[in-house]
Amino acid sequence: MTDLKLKLTVTMEISSVLAIGFCFLLLGNGAQSLSMEHQPYRTGFHFQPPKNWMNGPMYYKGVYHLFYQYNPYAAVWGNMTWAHSISYDLVNWIHLENALSPDDPFDINGCFSGSATFVAGGKPVVLYTGVDTMKHQVQNLAEPKNLSDPLLMEWVKSSHNPLMTPVDGIEPEFFRDPTTAWQGPDGLWRVLVGNQMDGHGWALLYRSRDFVTWTRSKEPLHSSTRTGMWECPDFYPVSVDGKDGVDTSSLDKSTKHVLKASFNDCDHYVLGNYNPVTDNYSVGTDFLANGSDLRYDYGKFYASKTFFDGGKKRRILWGWIQESDSTTNDIEKGWSGLQSVPRTILLSKTGKQLIQWPVEEIEKLRTGNVSIENKKLEGGSILEVSGITASQADVEVSFDLSNLKEAELMDPSWIDPQLLCSQKTASVRSNVGPFGILAFASKDLTEQTAIFFRVFRSNDKYVVLMCSDQSRSSLREGLKKETYGAFIDINPLHEKISLRSLIDHSIVESFGGEGKTCITARVYPKLAIDNQAYLYAFNNGTFDVKISTLNAWSMKKAQIVSSTKRRKPHLN
């Protein structure tokens, strides 16, 4: 969260038990909001509470639990409480009563981000950031009241709270977001807490034998002079063979470790080698060093968290997707923010980056397939993908290119892909590209969100640029119509250029190069809503491209319902 406004992390892990976690918020005020039946921007298969701000899940005795920051009183930040929803499949959700309320001296000014860990006997415990009576950020512990209850309806805060406080030079406003804990070969638990020291980002390391008494290490696990405050840090291993996910406490030597930090409104990560005996973490290329800019997502995606799914041997990533309209719009519609579709995450074959893909469970919402094969797209042409509900869809497409030698020469000064996409929008023609899809398009194309590629020549290789262009996404004024971009590590001589986009009323999550580059966008069309939204494949380049395969599906609506009336905690 930015200034403690953007997240709550709940993560739980153990090799025999599933767990999920991430760091974010959703908001709302139902009393003054629009009717939910008349909201064209409310999503169909992304998690959202019925109203209010939101944050993170776990798996216990067959049930996924999503705990999230929730303001029971308004669609703006404040009165941060942990709401609680459950699922059996990561797709359909039931809202339960709130789990934690800010009603103790150590969290009276808000229950914010946290994490969870399964300790001895598979017992889930939660570390979370509270803001105390002095408005200092402190780390607290909570545990379920009844472990035999698979719904975990009631949580009890520890009598030892707070467990970690901002002392010894830690600034009390820069001390938050404890990670999932992991256990070393010495039996001690380790946890990281996000911090800013002398204006620079730190991951403070704490150790504990009993999960109650924590001692800070003299040195942080990692730090950077190139960044400010690290929010929602995450630290976990990934297998070097790229086949399966790995438990956080794994001592397998055939791994690299990912350190993720949220800063500058983006989720950045580095890859390195971790020694569990000395707690030394050495990275190959540090945050923002030597032009490096590894991110989970190059669009609207923040305060994320991963968990290890031991049942299916996969690591899953969740992220918080903010709105791109105004606070006034949030209050009017009665909610703010949503959760990304959960994504599997692996190390690439090259070992240089992570690969992401939507979890397979989301595919059960697919219906009404439309398929196109070996279709030539002439330069300057579009092709409507008809027969699906274009405002709520899943589309996969791959392109073959036969004129690569004619690609535009790459200028050495083009080092910023987002700036390049902003300058070379979908309407700017070049030889090879832009080509891709137009989502949320109106019939006359006055509104469109273009997700596309361009190919450039650079000495003896080719450079592939992926863009998400929101500049023409809506005729409405007062919106953030940003354009996002990233280079993809693809050799188009030997690989097809592929794209998958999940389209859901006001969000497009796009995965380029089979998940090598991800870009998420929020859009709010005025014309292209519900059944007035259209989907097109397009090629605005000079030379032809061929659609090798295109498959598109309408997506059924996920079931997200309330089982009980939410109780409102008292106002402080």
TrEMBL record:
UniProt-recorded Gene Ontology molecular function terms: hydrolase activity, hydrolyzing O-glycosyl compounds
Positions of the Glycosyl hydrolase family 32 N-terminal domain: 46-358
Stored SUPFAM superfamilies: Arabinanase/levansucrase/invertase, Concanavalin A-like lectins/glucanases
Keyword Methyltransferase recorded: no
Stored SMART domains: Glyco_32 (SM00640)
Keywords noted in UniProt: Glycosidase, Hydrolase
Residues of the Glycosyl hydrolase family 32 C-terminal domain: 361-554
InterPro entries: ConA-like_dom_sf, Fructan_Metab_Enzymes, Glyco_hydro_32, Glyco_hydro_32_C, Glyco_hydro_32_N, Glyco_hydro_beta-prop_sf
Gene Ontology BP annotations: carbohydrate metabolic process
CDD domains: GH32_Fruct1-like (cd18624)
Pfam families hit by this protein: Glyco_hydro_32C (PF08244), Glyco_hydro_32N (PF00251)
PANTHER family: BETA-FRUCTOFURANOSIDASE, INSOLUBLE ISOENZYME CWINV1-RELATED
Family: Belongs to the glycosyl hydrolase 32 family.
Protein name: ARABIDOPSIS THALIANA CELL WALL INVERTASE 1
